[in-house]
Design brief:
InterPro entries: Glyco_trans_8, Glycosyltrans_8_dom-fam, Nucleotide-diphossugar_trans. The protein is α/β, with parallel strands linked by helices and 341 residues long. The chain has 15 helices and 9 strands.
Length: 341
């Protein structure tokens, strides 16, 4: 029998995503029964009722759950933070050096809009080769990295899953540097937390296999469509993508133009929705209806165009948006910021 490991796992959520977090948590525990798991949940005003429901969802598993209140990030930096369309809890991964107990020297941070479909033992045991964090390379155009001052030899990563050497993270004062960057780039960056992590830790990231954070792009696009949709700096090989899809560890249900909604919403067409609903049945939200599909007018328009325009043309149009227009707009904002400082 495999010897049990003790792993520290971190989630973050507001009250609106408590049910989504519960599904990810149950999938984690269901597929890590041979491990003892300490789960730290950074709570952005999760209600007592939903905390109880999260705990009850996990009651049949070997784990300890601790809720930690998310501090007010605006108070920390001394001005109102523009969180875009996100929750303040997105900044929790930046604050883990002080939010977690000092004796926690290593942790895996996982976004709550995920499924964990395999043991995390290998990921936990990964040698980061002296780096402070481990993450997967995101399929982004190099213009994003250039805008942020990331060297061409480094890559933009997706911070939805991070293996963190918290001992090094604290020693190198990354939290202080990242908090300063939140203030410096307030309201300018499209992905405020992710962008500054990629910028400031660019030389201190160990790149992990794709299976540890498979975003919707890889499920909803054929391999030859990925480059057309994203114009990526780093392109995973077809074997790497197929291997990750065949044996995923963490599936990330990020928003994506080829997906109608998300698995906790009605009529979601993500390929992994049936698997998601299977784990939802094991939570305290099992008997509640799925949420109605909610999209911004912009996303609703994109879905309409998606149904009208031939697929290959639509994907290339999105590629122009992701690979050219959005990074140019980002560059314009950053240039204005530098000129004003």
């Amino acid at each position: 029998m495999k010897v049990s490991q003790l792993m520290n796992i971190v989630y973050a959520s507001d009250d609106n995503f408590a049910d989504v977090l519960a599904v990810s948590l149950v999938s984690l525990l269901e597929n890590n029964k041979n491990n003892t798991v300490n789960v730290y949940i950074i709570s952005q005003d999760i209600s007592d009722k939903n905390k109880e429901r999260i705990i009850s969802s996990a009651q049949n598993y070997q784990c300890l759950i601790e809720f930690i209140n998310m501090p007010n990030i605006s108070q920390i930096i001394g001005e109102t933070v523009d969180i875009k369309r996100y929750s303040e809890s997105m900044f929790s991964r930046i604050l883990l050096g002080t939010l977690l107990p000092s004796e926690v020297t290593k942790a895996i941070y996982i976004d709550c809009d995920t499924l964990v479909l395999d043991s995390l033992s290998q990921l936990w045991d990964t040698d980061l080769k002296g780096k402070t964090i481990g993450a997967i390379r995101d399929s982004r155009n190099i213009r994003y990295s250039q805008n942020l001052g990331i060297k061409s030899s480094n890559y933009y990563v997706y911070s939805g899953m991070l293996v963190m050497d918290l001992e090094k993270y604290r020693k190198l004062c990354y939290q202080v540097k990242l908090v300063d960057a939140i203030k410096e780039y307030n309201g300018i960056l499209d992905f405020p937390d992710n962008d500054i992590i990629c910028k400031l830790l660019q030389d201190d990231i160990y790149y992990l296999p794709l299976r540890y954070n498979i975003i919707s792009l890889f499920y909803m696009c054929k391999y030859n469509e990925i480059s057309a949709a994203r114009w990526p700096q780093y392109m995973y090989t077809e074997d790497e993508v197929n291997s990750a899809i065949r044996k995923p560890c963490i599936v990330h249900f990020d928003t994506f133009f080829m997906v109608n909604g998300r698995p906790w919403m009605q009529n979601c067409d993500h390929k992994m929705t049936p698997v998601y609903l299977k784990y939802r049945e094991k939570t305290a939200w099992a008997n509640e209806p799925l949420r109605p599909s909610s999209m911004t007018n912009k996303r609703r328009l994109i879905q309409i165009v998606r149904k009208i325009v031939p697929r290959f043309i639509f994907i290339r149009l999105i590629g122009v948006m992701h690979g050219l227009i959005r990074p140019l707009l980002q560059k314009k904002r950053l240039t204005r910021c530098r000129n004003e400082s």
